[in-house]
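User: quick one, sequence for these tokens?
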């Protein structure tokens, strides 16, 4: 793999009010700031040329403008955050080769270096339209947790598959469920870290394809890209990001972290 010259990129932070598990999640208070502000400020510390919050909710728009963020109002009909990204690219008239990094709006501790890293991964191969990050899985608990997305890659770091199931399956090792740490031979087992970089041209094709069967089964939208033969570059994260906020317990953990830091 040959690393080419780094390209400029923008960050888009999709943020919607109607989270099923934590209503109004982008606006929950963490250390005196709405969560979306923490994410925005982290993104500003990256090399991004601009950072845009993409939302369909006037309450999020008002909150973001209060801390002087750039906001793009988008449709309420988007089924995924990736669809919301594509609308931003369309509204801003971005070129097909421009790079957008999708930073999740529920990651108030996202490391800026990970944002830079996933954007830079787009330059490893000129044939790659998307990139993401991963880290090594260390325990059986992670391997068998359906909320931990697993992935496998080929020798060039191109994604082969993403799954909520344990992959690759070791028929001998996994028969012994008493172990707590994975043996070294399974160092290839990777946990997906949900940050993406896309070229705008691929985003345009993504929304036109619609949901594919394996995406619907696994509830993993990145499988739509693999289904259509697209390459996703995967690199090991330089820094393990702390957990995001999906539940009330996650929120309390993050609040405790900020209170003690």
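Assistant:
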């Amino acid at each position: 793999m040959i690393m080419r010259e780094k390209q400029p990129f923008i960050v888009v932070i999709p943020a919607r009010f109607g989270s099923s598990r934590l209503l109004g999640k982008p606006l929950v208070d963490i250390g005196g700031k709405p969560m979306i502000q923490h994410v925005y400020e982290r993104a500003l510390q990256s090399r991004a040329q601009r950072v845009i919050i993409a939302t369909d909710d006037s309450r999020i728009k008002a909150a973001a403008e209060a801390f002087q963020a750039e906001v793009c109002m988008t449709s309420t009909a988007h089924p995924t955050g990736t669809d919301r990204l594509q609308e931003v690219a369309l509204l801003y008239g971005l070129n097909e080769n421009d790079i957008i990094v999708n930073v999740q709006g529920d990651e108030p501790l996202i490391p800026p270096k990970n944002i830079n890293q996933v954007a830079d991964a787009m330059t490893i191969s000129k044939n790659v339209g998307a990139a993401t990050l991963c880290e090594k899985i260390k325990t059986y608990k992670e391997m068998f947790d359906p909320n931990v997305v697993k992935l496998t890659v080929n020798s060039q770091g191109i994604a082969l598959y993403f799954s909520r199931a344990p992959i690759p399956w070791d028929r001998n090792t996994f028969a012994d469920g008493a172990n707590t740490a994975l043996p070294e031979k399974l160092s290839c087992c990777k946990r997906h870290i949900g940050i993406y970089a896309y070229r705008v041209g691929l985003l345009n094709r993504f929304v036109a394809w619609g949901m594919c069967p394996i995406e619907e089964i696994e509830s993993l939208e990145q499988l739509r890209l693999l289904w259509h033969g697209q390459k996703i570059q995967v690199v090991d994260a330089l820094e393990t990001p702390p957990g995001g906020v999906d539940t009330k317990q996650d929120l309390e953990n993050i609040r405790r972290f900020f209170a003690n830091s």
